[in-house]
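It would be a great kindness if you could assist me with a short task in structural biology. A protein sequence and the structure tokens that stand for its backbone fold form the material at issue. I should value your view on which stretches of the chain appear to form regular backbone elements. The record follows directly beneath this note.
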Amino acid sequence: MIGRRTHDPERDAALYVSGEMRSTDRRRFEAHLLRCDDCWREVSLGRDGRGMVEASREIAPPGLRDDIRASISVAPVPRRLPRRLALVAAVVSVLAFSIFGAAQVRSRHQPPPIAAALTAARTETLATRGPSELPAPNLSSQGLQLVMGELVDLAGLTSDAFMYRNTAGEAVLLFTSAIPFPVAHDASRLVVGVNGWTAQSDGMTLVCGDRPMNYLVIAQDPSLVGLVQRGLVTEPTPS
């Protein structure tokens, strides 16, 4: 996939960002990203576009999103239009529809830091402000491998963000902060004796607690969230 003869940064980045890349190829490509500026740039461009689309889902009514998908799926694209320009055109179309539909939204939104964390988890993108302030918790005992650790800004809440993957390539994000995270909309309190909450939002599971630090865990698979929680309790707290 990424050998000299078939190295295509634009194609490989598109497969990676869209989630269509096989897990073995994905891990190999992530290692390749560390030494290939062209692929890193293409992934950044693709994730920026996908991030805008995913963020727009927070303000677009479900019915409108269906109309957008249908219109994009049938909209003709000039045959010779470069793939990147076609992607940008699709993103602009989605944003235009979403802005129009925002005025029709009546449902409550998540607190801004929670919405930002959800977008990062859905797009598997961390808008870094630099290296994490604290070392990443070692969750290898739970079968989770660290992919990246960065300092991020969640709509004004400074947080360390760590992305892990299991052997199947599924991602889970752990956010830690010096201050408590806000409570998500429709959250339920954790069991008695544990100060925290759990919630579901757009197919993602969220769990928040304050021991051994203020943390927020987000993943599509609830079992991955449980693995991180277990690892935080059993592993020494980084300092």
